[in-house]
Amino acid sequence: MPTRHHILSAAAALVIALSGVACSDDSASVARSETTPTTAAATAASSTTAPAATLHILVTNDHGVGAPGIDAVVEALRKVPATEVTVVAPATNQSGTDGKRTPGTLAVTDATTASGYPAKSVQGYPADTVIWAIDQHGIATKPDLVVSGINLGQNVGPLASISGTVGAAKAAGKRGIPALEASQGIGEGAPTADFPSGVKQVLDWVATHRGDLAGKGPGTGPAEVLNLNIPTCPTGSVRGVVNVPLGTGNQSTSKVDCTSTKTDFADDIEAFVNGFAAIAPVPVG
User: Using one digit for the tens of pLDDT, what is the confidence trace for 154-178?
Assistant: First the structure.
C-alpha cells in the first residue's frame, strides 16, 4: 500500500509536469503575440507608400492677371495632385517690358483670375511680381518653380530678350528658382491661340520634372530658365517637343507648318515654324 510520502511525491511530480506544460504553452503564446504584430507592421509598411512631396508653383505672366493664358494654365495646374498654385501677376498688360522693375514700394491688391482663382495683382512689371513675392516676402511659401505664361504670341529667338513673360522667369532664375516661360504662338491661318495645346505641354513638362523640383525651394545660386514656345497649328497638331538653342536670327515666325517632315533644327525658331514645341534655355543675366 502506498504511504503518505509516496502519494505526496507523486502529486508533486504531477504538479511539476503540469506546470511544465503550462509554461510551454505560455511561451508559445508569448512568441505568437510578439510575432504577429511585427508581421502585421511589416505588411502594412510594405503596402504603404510615402505621400508625394507637394510642388509649390508661383504663376505669373505679362498680359495681366485677367488674361486668358494665365487662366488656362492655372486652372490646369491647380488640379494636379500634390500641387499648390499661387498666382501673382501684373494688374495690367505689361507685354514687351523684359526685366524692368518699379523702384520703391509696390502696390499690391487682392484679385482673381478669369475663372475666379485667388490671386495678387501687382501695380508694376512682370519682374516686379517675383520681386514682391520673393524679396518682399509677399507669399508665405517660397516656390519650387515659377511658371510664367501662358503668353499670347510666340517669344522665340530675339523676341525672348524683350518679353515681359521671359523677364519674370529670369527674375525667378536670379533668385535660385527654376522657371518655365510658356508662350502660345499665333500667326497666319491661326489667329486664335490654341491654349489647350500649350497647357498640355506645360503639364507634361511639370510631370516629367516634378521629382527634381518638389520640396526643394530656391537654391543658393542662379537657377535654370527655360523658354517654351508652342505653335498654334493651322492644320494638324503639334508634332512633339524638342530641346534646342535660342535662335539669334530674324526669320519670320508668322507661318507654321505642322505637316512638315523636317526633324533636325538649328534653333527654337526653326523648330517652332516646323510645328514643334521648342524649349530653349535663356541666360539669366
Answer: 999 999 999 999 999 999 999 999 9
